[in-house]
Amino acid sequence: MLDYKLLEALAAVIECGGFERAGDALGLSQSAVSQRIKALEVRLGQPVLVRTPALAPTPAGQRLLNHFQQVQLLERDLRQALPTLESASPRLRIALNADSLATWWADAVGTLCHAEGLLLDLVVEDQDVGLKRLRDGDVAACLCASPQPIAGARCVPLGTMTYHPLATPAYRAHHFPAGPTPEAFRHAPAIVYGPHDQLQHRFLAQHGYRGAFPFHLCPSSEGFVRLARAGMGYGMMPLMQVDEWVAQGKLVSIAPGEVLEVPLYWHFWRHSGELIERLTAALSALSLR
């Protein structure tokens, strides 16, 4: 029989990124958390954490984390059926991309969170890599661009986010006087969200350009837009985030009529309980473009 206090300690160490912060989250000393991890490893007969070069779960630890995520969701359904059980606000750890968080996410889940008393622990990841968080057992669900479900999980298509290559009119006139040419791409500074962000590369590939290009690295959706509005570069942005600036002519496309469409898929563990099913229904009701 598994001791769920030990699994809780494992989940806290991974989510908090260390033993000391995990202890703070659980109301325990760092030593007590370490002892629980050691007890789990002794009971399992193998390590559950890799401590160097970076703290991460072993394959066995990942399976335990996946199991713990699902048990937490199922226990939440049980508390609803048996109200006399000790109850706490349900909490879901979810990975999603920054652009979704900055635009449609809150409108899609706000009503459900209020009705269910649901608390969210949101992990911001690029849509191309969020699925790794789910596979590693770090999150209960994720938004990503992959249509392929992992073993034990379900995948639901949510729609498509459409990105436009936008910059200020002055920036376009200076850097793209002849339009989106290879020479312009080679010298015009772009804005890239993070090291895993491939939107800019895909857009350039659509134009047959696969060479190097100068870029600002900006891991903030709001900061991304502010850099573009300041004339510092061009970048791929969803219209729903910048429709006001586009309508006022303060941001324009460097390649009018050309867009990049990114499909989004909602991945979550099977048998995760009714709460995940209701969250999935709320997300599926949204029409993304």
Give a written overview of the molecule.
Helices cover 46% and strands 20% of the residues. It has 289 residues and is α/β, with parallel strands linked by helices. The strands form three sheets. Strands 3, 4, 5, 6, 9, 10 and 11 form a seven-stranded mixed beta sheet that branches. Helix 1 (4-16) crosses helix 2 (19-26), helix 1 packs across helix 3 and helix 2 (19-26) packs across helix 3 (30-44). The model has no long low-confidence stretch (mean pLDDT 87).
Helix content: 40-55%
The profile of the biggest β sheet is: 7 strands, mixed
Q: What fold name stands as the CATH topology of the domain at 161-261?
A: D-Maltodextrin-Binding Protein, domain 2
Series of H and E elements: HHHEEHEHHEHEEHHEHEHEHEEH
Structural class estimated from helices and strands = alpha/beta
Please give the count of helices: 13
> What is the subunit arrangement here?
single chain
Radius of gyration: 22 Å
Give the uncertain stretches in residue-range form: none
| Strand tally | 11
Rounded to the nearest angstrom, the distance between the terminal CA atoms is 47 Å
Shape descriptor reads elongated
Q: Can you identify the CATH superfamily of the domain at 161-261?
A: Periplasmic binding protein-like II
GO molecular function: DNA binding; DNA-binding transcription factor activity
Protein name: ArgP/LysG family DNA-binding transcriptional regulator
Family: Belongs to the LysR transcriptional regulatory family.
Keywords: DNA-binding, Transcription, Transcription regulation
